[in-house]
UniProtKB/TrEMBL annotation:
Molecular function as annotated in GO: adenosylmethionine-8-amino-7-oxononanoate transaminase activity; dethiobiotin synthase activity; pyridoxal phosphate binding
Gene Ontology annotations for the cellular component aspect, listed alphabetically: mitochondrion
Keyword line: Aminotransferase, Pyridoxal phosphate, Transferase
Stretches the record annotates as Disordered: 351-385
Organism of provenance: Rhizophagus irregularis
Signal peptide: none
Cell location: Mitochondrion
Stretches with biased composition (Low complexity): 351-381
Protein name listed in UniProt: PLP-dependent transferase
């Protein structure tokens, strides 16, 4: 069994070594750590051999069961991905010279590995070598700059190979970076960004020179802001400055209880270079410091043990103390333990490592890494992958825009936090909240909105919208709302009452529906044609469907489509019917184009257009657009309103507002709505708010996010396609699955792919059929080094996959193939 894995496990420890600057001794530290690992393993192997010999002479043989549980790492690796100044500077060769004792019988070096022996297997490797002794971005031939993805996959593949060699007897790999924390690689990407996808435990080599306190602490914070764990900081003991003492004191006095404090180690300064005695001097240096490096590796081992012990306990502990939203705890089986996240991927922990369905495994017998398959060891002894990369298929509940761990947003949040913390908002203003207000009115609110009201999430933003609209229409008469059947606007009581009866409110005793909800026509592609459900049979019989989304959104449908007249007549008849019965309506609330939580219902835009026009013509009441889900390019346009080419009077936005980093919501309104609340008494004002209204962190992050979105390639490339819809998902793939018998229908817009499955029990939110499919999807094997699992969250009988706005095409095509394979079984 071969595994595509390049992430640490309990018994395959990986460390990356960064430095605060260049020429600070990373390679010396790497050498010392390798020597320590080898020395410890040598002692363990000797003990193992002695135990075996003792067991042969021991009739009771009491220790036989435990002989394989001795803690050692038989496979030791050193990896220098990028080397400049080669061959004069050759860190790999340096480490090899001062790590290996050629007279020692316990070593296999490089590829001279022997199976089932009692020797330590040691490998040294460098992947990219350049002659010029300068930064990699300067050393490279400008005509042959390798793509970051290619470089990363080469590193991943090498680590994976080492991991597979270490399945039985464990291993330890040290990855040494080049230059400093923010030094660039060949493409110009800085190292702390480039290596972030691996998020390996980091050893930071500090600067023991004058000014080194500043560079060390700055480097530490730079790594910390990008989400790295830094268990160790090592400095040379420079008696002139003693930087290590100050840094240790600094961390003791500024300890953060939420972040593991790095342990500070000082190592003796190496001898000055001596042309004639350098080799001997350095060998003596390492021998005299072996015990010091042993203390460092002891600390690293303890850190690893603590990390995985905590991960082991998180699932059961969460079940004991956490109350999850929208979750029936009585049927929770597997808990998704997330160790970290980056871009589109979650790194999840699986403490049942020996599961034969592990998505990291591959049965490819042609893979060159399959060397351990001949080993007859029990599979329970194999250290299978425990940290797994999975695609965040729900875009972390519809919020992800610029990807997890986006350093630009992280730095923005840090700046706002450092400058403001949180400040009172009523009758106050600050730069983040003012700038965001200006950006919103020039963006999603352009040509219609004049005011921005801040709140904390989508539900409260809609609660505010509801108050605005209903008070605008009447101060003292109880009004009803108009909406669409299947709508959902949140879980606060006002917006709950603004929705028809559904699974979300049926158990809430104080729920009191206050409105009328029309059944909308739903569009789905089936058998290569977009068809409309919920329209009269007399019309449907003469309707052959649409061939493309462009046809569906065509403006000419208002005048030429027979459905246009039918929709108009049906809506107006119902409006007259209910007003004649005495209903007084205060607002129309719709989710433009797609109703999310109701089951990803793609509503015929022609119907919504006619509904809005009729309501404005007959009732003249405010129109609220719930754009909490649809706003900020989720569906391929800046807003859902752009599809309809109709402006609301009030609109709510959240989710993608902050790029997926932190909670914030806004409700935009026209000046006419705002003026209703002007007066001379407090009671006339809009009395709604919360303590963290317009918090500067969220406002500045939101402003950064919404200014980043238009610069994304797929958005920029489609900015002139006013009449065309756009999707990141492949059209041919959608046509393929629309023909499958299990599929009732499919559609995609922007980042959203929605697949409705046939369910003999009728479907709906209570259905479990999509959950069963999702389980199949999550158990698919990884087929390459850049493959991943998929984590989704079903909506009854609806499977939806939502990408971020930065998802790459290759990943989406991969997901499509996995979905097709599961549906076609």
């Amino acid at each position: 069994m071969n595994y595509y894995n390049y992430l640490p496990t309990r018994n395959f420890q990986i460390y990356q070594i960064f430095a605060s600057n260049t020429n600070l001794g990373k390679t010396i530290i790497s050498t010392g750590l390798l020597r320590s690992s080898i020395l410890k393993t040598s002692k363990s192997l000797i003990n193992k051999i002695n135990n075996k010999n003792n067991n042969k002479n021991n009739k009771d043989n009491k220790n036989k069961k435990n002989e394989n549980k001795i803690n050692y790492y038989k496979n030791i690796y050193y990896l220098k991905p990028i080397q400049t100044g080669y061959p004069k500077d050759d860190d790999t060769n340096f480490v090899k010279i001062f790590t290996i004792n050629n007279n020692d019988d316990y070593y296999n070096v490089d590829d001279n590995f022997e199976k089932n022996d009692n020797k330590i297997n040691i490998k040294f490797n460098s992947l990219y070598k350049y002659k010029k002794p300068v930064s990699p971005h300067l050393a490279i031939n400008k005509n042959f700059i390798p793509n970051d993805e290619i470089v990363l996959n080469k590193i991943k593949s090498y680590i994976s190979k080492c991991y597979n060699e270490s399945l039985i007897n464990g291993g330890r790999l040290f990855l040494e970076t080049a230059g400093g924390v923010s030094s660039p690689i060949m493409s110009g990407t800085i190292q702390s960004e480039f290596y972030r996808v691996l998020r390996l435990p980091t050893i930071l080599v500090g600067d023991s020179n004058l000014g080194g306190i500043s560079t060390t602490l700055s480097s530490y914070e730079s790594l910390l802001l990008r989400g790295y764990d830094i268990p160790i900081i090592i400095l040379f003991n420079n008696e002139n400055y003693k930087n290590h003492l100050f840094i240790e004191k600094y961390f003791n006095e500024n300890q953060n209880s939420s972040i593991i404090k790095p342990k500070i180690f000082d190592i003796q300064l190496p001898p000055k270079k001596d042309e004639y005695n350098d080799l001997v001097n350095m060998k003596n240096y390492f021998q005299s410091n072996d015990e010091n490096f042993n203390h460092v590796t002891d600390e690293l081992e303890e850190w690893y043990e603590n990390k995985f012990n905590r991960l082991d306990k998180m699932e059961e502990k969460a079940k004991e103390i956490v109350w999850w939203p929208f979750t029936q705890h009585g049927i929770v089986d597997k808990v998704n333990v997330v160790d970290s996240a980056y871009k589109d991927l979650l790194i999840t922990y699986n403490n049942n490592s020996n599961n034969s369905n592990d998505s990291n495994n591959s049965n490819d017998s042609n893979n060159s890494n399959d060397s351990h398959n001949s080993n007859n060891s029990n599979t329970s002894d194999i250290d299978t992958p425990s940290l797994n990369e999975v695609f965040d298929g729900s875009a972390s509940w519809w919020t992800q825009g610029l990807g997890h761990g986006n350093s630009k947003l992280t730095l923005t949040a840090s700046y706002a936090s450092g400058r403001y913390g949180h400040v009172l908002f009523p009758e106050s203003i600050n730069e983040p909240s003012l700038s965001l207000s200006e950006s919103l009115l020039d963006g999603v609110g352009k040509n219609w909105a004049n005011r921005v009201f801040y709140s904390d999430n989508g539900s409260t933003a809609m609660e505010v919208a509801l108050k605005m609209a209903l008070i605008k229409q009447s101060d003292d008469v109880e009004l009803s709302v108009l909406g669409l059947e299947g709508s959902y606007h949140g879980d606060t009581i006002g917006v709950m009452n603004a929705c028809g009866p559904n699974i979300y409110n049926e158990k809430v005793s104080w729920y009191s529906p206050k409105g009328i909800w029309f059944k909308p026509p739903q569009i789905l592609m089936k058998d290569n044609k977009y068809r409309i459900n919920n329209i009269p049979k007399t019309i449907n019989n003469n309707f052959d469907g649409f061939d493309s989304l462009t046809e569906i959104f065509n403006e000419n449908r208002v005048e030429k489509d027979p459905l246009s007249y039918h929709y108009k007549q049906s809506i107006e008849n119902q409006l007259h019917h209910y007003t004649n019965q005495g209903y007084k309506f205060g607002t129309l609330i719709i989710e433009p184009i797609v109703m999310g939580a109701g089951g990803m219902i793609f509503v015929d835009p022609l119907y919504q257009k006619q509904l809005i026009k009729s309501v404005r013509s007959i009732l003249n009441i405010p129109i609220i657009f719930d754009e909490v889900f649809t706003g900020f390019w989720r569906l391929g346009k800046q807003t859902g309103a752009e599809f309809l080419k109709i402006n609301p009077d009030i609109a709510a936005y959240a989710k993608l507002l902050t790029g997926g980093l932190c909670p914030l919501a806004v409700t935009l309104s026209t000046e006419e709505i705002f003026k209703k609340f002007l007066g001379n008494t407090k009671v006339e004002a809009l009395l709604h708010g919360h303590s963290y209204t317009a918090h500067p962190i969220g406002c500045l992050v939101a402003n950064t996010s919404i200014n980043e979105y238009p610069n994304l390639k797929w958005i920029k490339g489609n900015e002139n396609e006013i009449d065309k819809s756009f999707s990141l998902w492949d059209k041919n793939f959608q046509k393929q699955i629309s023909c499958l018998p299990k599929v009732k229908g499919v559609f995609s817009l922007g980042t959203l792919l929605s697949i409705e499955l046939n369910d003999i029990d009728g479907g709906g939110y209570a259905s479990n059929i999509a959950k069963i499919f999702n389980e199949k999807l999550s158990n698919l094997e990884r087929k390459s080094i850049d493959d991943f699992g998929i984590k989704t969250r079903p909506l009854g009988n609806v499977i939806y996959i939502m990408s971020s706005l930065i998802s790459d095409v290759k990943s989406l095509r991969n997901i499509e193939q996995k979905i097709f394979d599961c549906l076609n079984k």
